[in-house]
Amino acid sequence: MFNSLFGTRLGLIAFSVWWVIVAASHTVIIAYFYNIPYQISIVDSLLSTILFAILSLGLWFWVRFSDIETTKPLTLLINHIGAALASIAIIVTLVSFSLSHIFINEPDYIKFLDSSMPARAITGTFLYLLIALVFYLVTYIQNYREKLLREGELKSLIKDAELNWLKLQLNPHFLFNSLNSISSLTMTMPEKAQEMIIRLSDLLRYSLKQKPDSLVSLEDELENCIKYLEIEKVRFGSRLNYSISCTPECQKYKVPGMILQPLFENSIKYSVAQSTDRSTISASIVKLSDGIEVSISNSVPLNSNFSEKGTGVGIDNIRRRLRLTYGLSNLLSIEKTKESFTARILIPL
Questions:
Q1: CB-side exposure of 16: number of CA atoms within 13 Å?
Q2: Which residues, 6+ apart, have CB-to-CB distance to 33 below 8 Å?
């Protein structure tokens, strides 16, 4: 219920300037048009302006109490008619009583004062309505801004929740296969098993430490992907071959955390895992005028049933994360031939 006029320096200045203008106008009108001495005009103006300024402070709370968005129009009208009649009557009475006693020895002014009561009441009513309208406008703008802030916070929470959910979709089969491989290696190659555990630990730590909307350097993201590929290489041996080409200039660019690993997972699932022959996964990162382009390609086995539909979950996951992060829906493109499958991601500057 705090009066927003005093919530900022600008509001306080606007409030003060408004009543200074009203007081100056009041003084000039009665001094120039009614030939009232300036000394008397200033006192008359100050007393009337101060009382109406006090009324405006109280009117703010009355406006907030009778909210235009929740109160019925008839009730709102009755409330303001009653408040206006009561407040204007009190102010006009106080002005008349005070000024008639202050300038009791000024018969010409007393005569003017008595004759000006109806005009003062009409002017006071106009000021009441104007102030009420301004306060309703201020209240509406305030409520609208608060609504936008709440909606923005809600959208941010939803976005974070969705990003977090998408990031947590780490392929469980990868974890199970890795653990099975480690279990086998503990008997035959314990050193390799230890190395694989360390890499798997680093991989999971990297995944868990990222916030839903965090951006990481491309260098860190690629390093994490290499750890993933090395873990898978323990499973598939010489069947898995990979190459990653990235210039030092591109390595410093920021990308969403864990955005590339699902593409490498797809490549292994639909290429290496479905073939007994040697398969190749290649990644290329180049700088464009409007960002950087990441291309990840894999060879397609001749007997593979690999299709774009088969990669729907992983591809859709990445597409949604890119849209949530950058607000664009065309950052991921797919190119498929009989021999290869290529996914391209554009990271905007």
A1: 7
A2: none
- The residues pairing with 288 across neighbouring beta strands, listed in sequence order, are 291
176 and 317, same domain (yes or no):
yes
Q: Say what the pTM is.
A: 0.54
CATH code for position 316: 3.30.565.10
Among the listed residues 346, 325, 29, the one whose alpha carbon sits nearest the alpha carbon of residue 163: 325
Q: Sign of dihedral through CA atoms 99, 101, 104, 110? A: positive
Per-residue pLDDT of the chain (349 residues; tens, 9 = 90+): 455 556 677 778 888 888 899 999 999 999 888 888 989 999 999 999 998 888 888 787 777 776 666 677 787 778 778 888 888 888 889 988 999 889 988 888 999 988 998 988 888 888 888 888 888 888 788 788 888 888 877 677 666 666 565 555 555 666 777 787 788 778 888 888 888 888 888 877 877 776 666 788 999 999 988 988 988 888 788 888 999 999 888 888 999 888 888 888 888 888 888 888 888 899 999 998 888 999 999 988 776 654 444 445 578 778 888 887 888 888 999 998 888 899 999 998 7
- Backbone dihedral angles phi then psi of residue 274, each to the nearest 5 degrees: -100, 5
Which residue matches tokens 């009755």?
Answer: 78
Residue 16's domain comprises 4-164
CA distance 13 to 15: 5
Whole-angstrom Cα distance, residue 136 to residue 143? 10
Residue 108: count of CB within 10 angstroms of its CB: 13
Do 154 and 175 reside in the same domain of the chain? Answer: no
Task: Kindly state whether residues 12 and 160 are assigned to the same domain.
Answer: yes
Report d(CA 255, CA 257) in Å as an integer: 6
How many residues appear in the chain? 349
List the structure tokens of 260: 């590339």
Q: What is the DSSP letter of 271?
A: I
Asked if 121 and 46 sit in the same domain, the reply is yes
